[in-house]
Recover the amino acids of this structure.
């Protein structure tokens, strides 16, 4: 098998928004890598590669790195690829600020609702009541921080765009199902940005694999969520 230099293998599964964000970032950076289909596990051997037992993790010549933000930083710091953070330290920090807000205050609360949306479980009133204000506050924060022109922080694609895109892609489904609301409508320009991001070659490749894997996942789990929920002509 041909080896990239350095040899990078991204482990994960295309239903995962985190795996998809890391994969798209590697593609956008133009870094050579391979993919190994891997499910999350609490087995001892897996924990040796990903200490929380989560995917994705990136196998590097020095060992494995888990946590998507750390993987993104590694891609950037290891060099050899197209930078996905601005050169200016303040602008870099602004991009990281967006990634952090999206992960902690949008992804995490919406993930708490995955059981009742995608996994055949139920979301109680308490869970539904707890997640929404956190997400709405985060989206109000993002409305202050980003202005798609055309990318979230200006004319350069950054990790903020890639990370936010895969969070919002899954998060929009959860918002619609749980609250009949839209993340994309909470920030001016975000709907157009989403459409623009979908035209990128990396997005098309990653979402093609996501779609086929996600359908099988939903069937396996007996999920309440159905794709047609997204096909509302008012939001096409
Ligand atoms: N904070 C982690 C989150 C990754 C994550 O939640 N991965 C999910 C798949 S989308 C997972 O491995 N879940 C299995 C588990 O939590 O045990 C990251 O940034 O990579």
């Amino acid at each position: 098998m041909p080896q990239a230099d350095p040899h990078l293998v991204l482990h994960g599964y295309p239903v995962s928004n985190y795996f998809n964000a890391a994969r798209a970032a590697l593609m956008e950076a133009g870094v050579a890598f391979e993919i190994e289909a891997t499910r999350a596990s609490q087995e001892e051997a897996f924990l040796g590669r990903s200490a929380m037992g989560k995917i994705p993790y990136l196998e590097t010549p020095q060992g494995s790195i888990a946590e998507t933000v750390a993987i993104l930083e590694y891609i950037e710091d290891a060099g050899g690829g197209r930078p996905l953070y601005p050169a200016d330290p303040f602008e870099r920090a602004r991009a990281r600020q967006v990634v952090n807000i999206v992960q902690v205050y949008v992804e995490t609360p919406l993930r708490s609702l995955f059981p009742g949306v995608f996994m055949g479980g139920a979301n109680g009133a308490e869970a539904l009541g707890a997640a929404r204000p956190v997400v709405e506050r985060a989206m109000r924060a993002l409305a202050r921080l980003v202005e798609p022109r055309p990318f979230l922080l200006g004319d350069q694609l950054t990790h903020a765009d890639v990370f936010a895109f895969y969070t919002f892609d899954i998060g929009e489904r959860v918002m619609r199902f749980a609250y009949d609301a839209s993340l994309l409508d909470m920030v001016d320009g975000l709907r157009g940005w989403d459409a623009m991001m979908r035209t990128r070659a990396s997005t098309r490749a990653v979402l093609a694999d996501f779609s086929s894997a996600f359908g099988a996942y939903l069937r396996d789990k007996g999920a309440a969520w159905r794709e047609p929920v997204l096909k509302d002509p008012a939001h096409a």
Notes: The chain is about 55% helix and 5% strand.
